Give the backbone structure.
Amino acid sequence: MSRMDCEGRQRKLRAELDRRKVDALVVTHLPNVRYLCGFTGSAGVLLVARRPVFFTDGRYAEQASAEVHDARISVVKSGTLPAVAATCAKLGLKRVAIESEHLTVAQFGGLEQALGKGVKLVRMAGAVEALRAQKDADEIALLRNAVGLSSRLFRPLLRSLHSGLAESAIAGKLEYMARKAGADRMSFETIVASAERSALPHGVASATKLPAEGFVVLDYGVVLDGYCSDMTRTVHLGKASGEARILHRAVLEAQLAAISVVRAGATAGEVDWAARQELRRAKLDRFFTHSTGHGVGLEVHELPRLAAGNDAVLQPGMVITIEPGVYLPGKCGIRIEDMVLVTERGYEVLTPVNKELIELN
Ligand code: ZN
Ligand code: ZN
C-alpha cells in the first residue's frame, strides 16, 4: 500500500475544507478512510484536520500500524466517535464537518452531544467521493489488474453454461474461479439472468435453470487489491433468431456510440445521450430504462453518473462503465458493459473481451 499518495489526497481535501470554511472533516465511510490513509479494516474513523488522526479499536491496532500512513494512530478503548469529539475539543476546532450520507442519526446525535455547544457540526456530502472520481496512476494500474482478472474468467465462465444448470450454480462456479485466481471478493452480487429473466436489468442469479435456447445476461466483477471491476456480456444459448440478432446488434451499436463520444471535457449527459440516440434510431429507446454508466474504483458505483441531462464534465483519469441495455418485459433483455478510461484526447476501453454475439450449443 506504500504506493498510495495519501498525503496528496489529504492536501486536496483540506483545500476543499478551507473553501467551505470548516476546520476538519470526520471521515466515517470506510472506502473514503482507505483512500485517504490506507486502512483496509472494517472499523476506523479518520479525522482530517491540520494534523490528521486515525481512530480505531484494539482489534485493529496492529493492522493500523502496518497500513495507515500520513495520520497519527489513536487506539481507543471505548467508542470511536466520543474519542474523535475529545480530540476536536483538544484541538480547539470550531466547525467540524461530517459525511452526512454516511452517518446514522444516532451517531450524529452522539457526536453532537459529545462535542458540546462550542463546536458547530456541518453536514457535508460527497467531498471525498468527488476527489475519488478522478483516479491517479496507481489507481488506474489497480483497476487494470481487476479488469484483467475478471476478463480472463469470461471464457471459462462460458464453458460452464449448460442448459438445465441453475443460474446460481453458474454464479457459484464463477465466484470460485475468481477467488482461486486471487480476487478479494466479487464487487457485487453476480447477475446471471437467463431467458425471460434477462429482461430484468438487475436479475441476480436465481434457482432458475438455464433453458435450451435464449439470451443469458452475465454481469459480474471482482475486487482485487481493493479495486472493483464491472462487466456485462449477453450470450445466446442455441442459435439466435434474426430478431435476437437485431436486438443484440442495436445494443452493441448504442454502446459503441456512447464510447465514441467519451473524452475529457464531454459531459456525462452527452455520453448517455449518444447511447439513447442510437437506440432511438432502432425504435428501442423506450426499452432502455436505466442510465448509461457510472464511475468505478474502490466501490463499484462511484461518480460520475452517466445519466440523462447530467452536466458533470468528464476529467482525464476518470474510469467509467458504458452499459446500455434493452429489456423487453416478459421476453428478453440484452446489456453490454465495458470499463472505459477517460483520457485527455478521448478514451481507452479497458475490458478486452469480444462483444459480438456469441451462440453456445
Ligand atoms: Zn455491471
Ligand atoms: Zn455497472
In short: Residues 242-260 form the longest helix (19 residues).
